[in-house]
Design goal:
- By secondary structure, this protein is mostly beta strands.
- The protein has 2 domains: 8-84, Elongation Factor Tu (Ef-tu), domain 3 (Beta Barrel), CATH 2.40.30; 103-194, Elongation Factor Tu (Ef-tu), domain 3.
- The protein contains 4 helices and 12 strands; from the N terminus they run E-E-E-E-E-H-E-E-E-H-E-E-E-H-E-H.
- A 6-stranded antiparallel beta barrel has the order 1-2-5-4-3-6. Strands 7-8-11-10-9-12 form a 6-stranded antiparallel beta barrel.
């Protein structure tokens, strides 16, 4: 479990092909690795991955073909948002994030809004109904508050701090992003469907 509050921006340095996926080596930047051990979960660009090797400031993760097919940004070198898993008693600054990417969206606008940026993302139709105005959504692992919802897209406002400490400042129209809907919305729908 995670909060969507990015702790550091790292960089995928290499990916090695496996029979059914890839092994990623990530340079973890300013991420505090105290207490991180093999088998621990780290949220990488919105995706919960298991540490399989640890050397200095580098962590390695095996990523399955299934995960690669359901996400973007894990199949090539580049900057990634990183967050260590939540421990019982930790402060919950964002919202409950599982690191289970629900789908891939596409940036359709990334515009100045004063000192902030307005981000508009087209969501897959199957996910759009779970995204609510003033609700939460995770974009590339970043917990955000939804400002506006349309049939198949939503808008969020990115403050300068978020732009500086995450990969979201690098977005542009046409870029694809990992989306995770609010955990509560998923369970509410399931409960309502089961009660019919």
């Amino acid at each position: 479990m995670f909060t969507g509050i990015v702790q550091a921006v790292g960089r995928i340095e290499s990916h090695t092909s496996l029979e059914q996926g890839v092994r990623l080596t990530i340079e973890t930047g300013m991420l505090d690795l105290a207490g991180v051990a093999i088998g621990d979960s780290i949220c990488v660009q919105g995706c919960c991955l298991t540490v399989v090797a640890h050397a200095g400031k580098r962590l390695a993760f095996d990523v399955s073909r299934e995960t690669l097919d359901c996400t973007v940004g894990l199949d090539r070198a580049g900057a990634v948002n990183l967050e260590k898993s939540l421990a019982l008693g930790d402060k919950l600054g964002g919202h409950l994030v599982t690191g289970h990417v629900d789908g891939v969206g596409e940036v359709i606008a990334f515009e100045a809004a004063g000192e902030s940026r307005l981000l508009r993302v087209r969501a897959p139709q199957a996910l759009a109904r779970y995204i609510a105005r003033k609700g939460s959504v995770a974009v590339d692992g970043v917990s955000l508050t939804v400002n506006r919802v349309a049939d198949d897209d939503f808008e969020v406002n990115l403050i300068p701090h978020t732009l500086e400490v995450t990969t979201l400042g690098r977005l542009a129209p046409g870029v694809r992003v990992n989306l995770e809907i609010d955990l509560i919305a998923r369970y509410v729908e399931r409960m309502l469907a089961a009660s019919k």
